[in-house]
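Consider a typical record:
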Amino acid sequence: MLLQTRRLRRPVLIALVASLAVLFVVVSAQKAHAHPAGTTGVLVTVQSDAVEVEMQVHMDGFVAATGYDKGPVQSELDKVADNLMSFIMNRVHVSDSTGALAAEVIDQPRFETINGDDAVVTKLRFTDDRPLSGEVTLDDTFILDVMPSHQVYVSLVSDWSNGQVAEGDPQVLGVLGGGVTSITLERTDQTPVSGFLAVVWLGMLHIAEGTDHLLFLSTLLIVAPAMAVRARWGHRWTEPIPLRKTIGRATLIITSFTAGHLITLALVSLGLLSFPTKPVEILVAVSIMVAAAHAIKPLLPRGELLIAGVFGLVHGTAFATTILDLNLGFGEKLLAILGFNVGVELAQLIAAVLVLPLLIWLSHARAYAGFRIGVASVAIVAAIAWIVAIAVGGDTVLQPIFTGVAANPIACYLGLVALVGVLWYFTRDRQPQGELT
């Protein structure tokens, strides 16, 4: 009877963990937007010597301001592009504490669908061939001079010198309309290292809040206390292994992952390589599934090193999206690549220091194999949910769970410690067992 109970523990544990994950796959995917539907968006990027302004003009406001009523036909818009940009530059102005900045066109106007509405998108650059000084003021009367009630959401993409960089949607600074046509960006924290330190922190947050990257790393590290040995059919995992070997394997895994993502992070961020976003996001999810499959049953001896290195290239491409979204100049971008990578590595090391001792501890109990397979099963469920979300263009259905974990990291970690402690206590070997060499 005792033998049968022990045999049942592993499948019951696997089924319980996997079932809990599947129960949460019930939330509808939703898309996030930089500004509400029916409004105009203005995205501001403050560089060391220039201010870039991307305008996402709602079609109704565009027609009211310009009299253009030929519909969203790009060829027709191209015919009036020069006159249109002159019209816009006479109504959109940027200045710093020294004086007004001159405008130039970066992107010609084009039609896009934003928040489900037709919009005209264009980008301007304001500079005076000198470093920016003090606060920056944006004055925008385009549309508002004929439609004062129209809402224009002004958002900050990044301000490197002021240490303001963020991942995801730009930070909304204010709303123009109702007689308000200008907004001022206070820039009181300018230091030479502000942007670098901010992007180091951004790299750390990217890992801490990036559940996909953490899950990939976890499914790789979970096999660190185990060794792939030959079995009748392929290979199987055996644990525990000596402490020194476990730490060495974990170090090699992290190093391999680091080498992979550093290469593509630099190449893509500098514009030397370019890949479509959706395939990269899907490959990130696939990488989790491959690492999880390897955690369940070894695909090949030391396969975790190959998986970490090869798919590290994919994760580096995804990391680069964050740098590209900051819209930095070349020099700032080089520092951002270095700082972001430092932040990513610091976060990975912290995660390894927190999690690896728990894995080593539990590897000396019979529950470890079931725990390893359970975590891998949850990873596969999460990866499938991500792929579905990418296909429909929304958030993963498991996002509420990931958001909750990110919002309560200490409580979640203590819960993991408690779970490992309970599993170890009830499934530990009662008699000393020699280590494998």
The chain has two domains: 9-31+195-427, 40-190. DSSP finds 13 helices and twelve strands in the chain. Residues 1-33, 432-437 have pLDDT under 50 and may be disordered.
